[in-house]
């Protein structure tokens, strides 16, 4: 937050108004903390903790967009790229803007949302995976 003091001030004001200074926020407070929740979402997309995600292996032979994916194929999803794709998020893809989180800025929906949201899951790229 040191790089974005205005974001920190706004988040602190929201926390103070909803939670006060006598306790820590809980999950039950989340619906009344939209800006703080947007910051968390934006941080996960802007600087993912695992930029290439976790490897997945096909549990069965599959076809995806005309390409054959044999059982056991290891796939690596580039989460960082998916969340910084200018075709999806526009020219501001590299900017940290929690006031308009990526879900709001999305221009095109691909891979069931952003890659952080499960693009390599069983319902995502290439069908069954482990």
Give a verbal description of the structure.
The protein has five helices and four strands; from the N terminus they run ααββββααα. With 130 residues, it is α+β, with helices and mostly antiparallel strands. It has one domain. The strands form two sheets. Strands 1-4 form a two-stranded antiparallel ribbon. Strands 2-3 form a two-stranded antiparallel ribbon. The radius of gyration is 18 Å and the shape is elongated. The relative contact order is 0.16. About 13% of the residues have low confidence.
Tag the structure with descriptive keywords:
about 130 residues; alpha+beta; two-stranded antiparallel sheet; about 30% helix; elongated
Q: First CA to last CA: what distance?
A: 36 Å
Q: Give a short account of the largest sheet.
A: 2 strands, antiparallel
> Structural class of the secondary structure composition?
alpha+beta
Oligomer: single chain
Number of helices: 5
* Portion of residues within helices: 25-40%
Radius of gyration (CA) equals: 18 Å
Q: How many strands appear in the DSSP assignment?
A: 4
Summarize the structure.
The chain contains 5 helices and 4 strands; from the N terminus they run H-H-E-E-E-E-H-H-H.
What is the topological layout?
Elements lengths: L4 H14 L15 H13 L9 E2 L4 E3 L2 E3 L4 E2 L3 H4 L3 H4 L12 H4 L25
Antiparallel strand pairs: 1-4, 2-3
């Amino acid at each position: 937050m040191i790089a974005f003091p205005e974001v920190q001030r706004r988040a602190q004001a929201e926390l103070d108004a909803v939670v006060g200074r006598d306790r820590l926020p809980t999950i039950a407070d989340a619906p009344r903390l939209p800006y703080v929740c947007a910051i968390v979402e934006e941080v996960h997309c802007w600087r993912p903790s695992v930029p290439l995600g976790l490897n997945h292996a096909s549990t069965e032979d599959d076809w995806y967009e005309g390409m054959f994916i044999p059982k056991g194929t290891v796939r690596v999803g580039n989460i960082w790229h998916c969340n910084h794709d200018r075709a999806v998020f526009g020219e501001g893809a590299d900017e940290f803007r929690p006031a308009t989180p990526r879900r709001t800025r999305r221009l095109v929906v691909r891979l069931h949302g952003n890659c952080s949201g499960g693009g390599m899951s069983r319902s995502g790229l290439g069908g069954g995976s482990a």
